[in-house]
Amino acid sequence: MQLMKLVPAALLASSLLAASDWTRFRGPNGSGVTEAGPLPVVFGPGTNVLWETDLPPGKSSPVLTEHRLFLTAHEGDKLLTLALDRRTGREIWRRAAPSRRLESMHRLNNEASSTPVTDGTNVYAFFGGYGLVAYGPEGDERWTLPLGPFTNFHGMGSSPILADGKLILVCDQDLDAYMLALDPANGEILWKRSRTDFVHGFSTPVVFDPGEGGIEIIVPGSYRMTSYSPQGKEIWRLDGLTYQVKSGPVIGGDRLFFSGWAIGGEAAARLELPSFEEMRQRFDTNGDSELTKQEIPEGWLPGSWEMHDRNKNGTMNARDWAHYRARRVSENACMAIRLGGRGDVTQSHMLWRHQKSLPEVPSPVLYRGVLYLVRNGGIVTTLDPASGQVLKQGRLRDALEGYYASPVAGDGKVYMISDAGKAVVIEAGADWKVLRTNDLGEDVYATPAIGAGCLYIRTASRLYCFGEQGRIASGTDGLRLLAEQAP
Ligand SMILES: [Ca+2]
Ligand SMILES: [Ca+2]
Residue 60 gets which letter from DSSP? Predict the structure, then answer.
């Protein structure tokens, strides 16, 4: 179903569309923030709907070009990339990846959970069950690159990005994790950086531009944040992350903010275990130089043996044990890191850590000088990015569900959407307050996208483009996007 509404005419500056720049997961450099016109407070099915389009299932987010909107979905055995008309929501084309492999995944993950990226013309999409695909604006297949199968029992979730003219993809998995840089023109692998110290992860990188010529690609991984040059050389590393990273970092000035949470990462669960060598000497009763379940004292066994027996041979070797041992002392935290370092910056560049009421999946959003976190149960915490001090904490009383979509912000508002589809609009500020809780009537897992005067929200069955028609009509910023009527 497509539902078109007549959109009032207004004058238009196309530069505004370019400025919105929502071309990758969470928009401009993964920040979740853009200022591109008025955004609605009141919206939902039948209310302030500029258009809506039925979609096959998927949990990826839309990305925008001046005229198009791209997203991914899966239907039956097809891994789909779709192009919609940004003004109307009309589907222009859909293409299926050459094949589809069903990978193991968490019950809440999805075969189309990675968000594509666009260079403004073409689209690049990643599916854990296939690899990478690249299409031109008319749906012409430019290249494909099969990848995997992956050793990530929750399924893949990281999204590709474009940086320094390269397509970057992080494939963190339990065995042989790596990061790729490709030529977006032809899919040729420019470099492949091994990340074998890391286990499965789901984070999407961000880019730091220190303004001195060279950019950095910043990648959260299990226990460690790493910064790479566009050539794949490590610039700095910082230890102290949780073991399983899901959210993405955000940058404000010369600071990086990251929030990580995983089961077992609470301070109370912390347990210092002996080294592998000591374990071997004390407990390797069958003399095979590895540790079986039976050999490890019961209180020291991992909750999930499968996860830590990374090569699935039924025993723990030194590498398996080292990772498990690190996990038992890793702690969940939201942290601030000073950028610009070199080498191991764990001691020198960690600015603060906050360890209470942390989100499990959603990334933080830094908006107008305030850092926002939302965790399951609708608990919102705002932090002072300078000090890590809590500014305010409160519950979203009408949206107490789980939170998987990451918050986004613009036009003085922060949007947080629960998995039950309650979309809370918060008036931004240290002393934030709820303006409105809208009910979308369907589950929401995808992070919204923001366009010029539009909020794009993917629910279980459709994509909505919401906007306040009155404000758009009277707006002086004039949005051509909304001025043009459906063809
Ligand atoms: Ca043994
Ligand atoms: Ca093993």
Answer: P
Q: pLDDT (tens digit, 0 to 9) for every residue of the chain, 487 residues total?
A: 444 443 333 333 344 444 458 999 999 999 999 998 899 999 999 999 999 999 999 999 999 999 999 999 999 999 999 999 998 999 999 999 999 999 999 999 999 999 999 999 999 999 999 999 999 999 999 999 999 999 999 999 999 999 999 999 999 999 999 999 999 999 999 999 999 889 999 999 999 999 887 899 999 999 999 999 999 999 999 999 999 999 999 999 999 999 999 988 988 888 999 999 999 999 999 999 999 999 999 999 988 898 889 888 999 999 899 989 989 999 999 999 999 999 999 999 999 999 999 999 999 999 999 999 999 999 999 999 999 999 999 999 999 999 999 999 999 999 999 999 999 999 999 999 999 999 999 999 999 999 988 999 999 999 999 998 766 544 333 344 454 433 3
Q: List the beta bridge partners of residue 465.
A: 51, 456
- CA–centroid distance, 289 to ligand 1, in Å, is 5
Distance 284 CA to ligand 1 centre (A): 4
Nearest bound ligand to the CA of residue 316: 2
**Sheet harboring 255-260: ordered strands across?**
250-252, 255-260, 333-338, 350-354
| Contact between 123 and 61 (Cβ < 8 Å) | no
Prediction pTM value: 0.92
Measure 264 CA to ligand 1 centroid, in angstroms: 26
- If you measure from the C-alpha of residue 474 to the centroid of ligand 2, how many angstroms do you get, rounded to a whole number? 64
CA of 296 to the centre of ligand 2 (A): 13
Residues less than 5 Å from ion ligand 1, measured at CB: 284, 286, 288
| Residue 214 token pair | 């060279």
Between the CA of 280 and the centroid of ligand 2 the distance, in Å, is: 14
Burial class (CB in 10 A: 0-12, 13-18, 19+), 298: exposed
Kindly list the structural domains of the chain, giving each domain's residue range(s) and its CATH number in brackets, ordered by start. 2-270+331-483 (2.130.10.10), 276-326 (no CATH)
Interval between CA 325 and ligand 1 midpoint (Å):
17
Q: Which ligand lies nearest the alpha carbon of 306?
A: 2
The C-alpha angle with vertex 88 and arms to 451 and 464, in degrees rounded to 5, equals 60
- Joined together, the tokens standing for residue 403 give 């939170």
Q: How far apart are CA 195 and CA 181, in angstroms?
A: 13
